[in-house]
Amino acid sequence: MARDVEQRKSGGLRVVDKAIMVAVGVVGVLIAFWALSALAGFLWGLVKVAVVVAVLGGLFWALVRRR
Questions:
Q1: pTM of the model
Q2: Domain enclosing residue 54, as ranges
Q3: pLDDT, tens digit, for every residue of 31-46?
C-alpha cells in the first residue's frame, strides 16, 4: 500500500501570519507598559499617603509632647 505524501506549497510563515505576530507583539508591549504604569502609580500613591500620615503623626506627636 503506497501512501501519497502531499508536498507543502510554501514552507514557513506567510506574510499574514507574520503581520499577526507583529500586531500581537505590539499590543502585548502596550498592555505591559499600561499595567506597569498603573502598578507604579498605585505604589506611588501609597508612598504619598504614607508620607502624609507620617508627617501628620509627627506633628501630632510633637504637639502632644510639648504640652
A1: 0.58
A2: 14-67
A3: 999 999 999 999 999 9
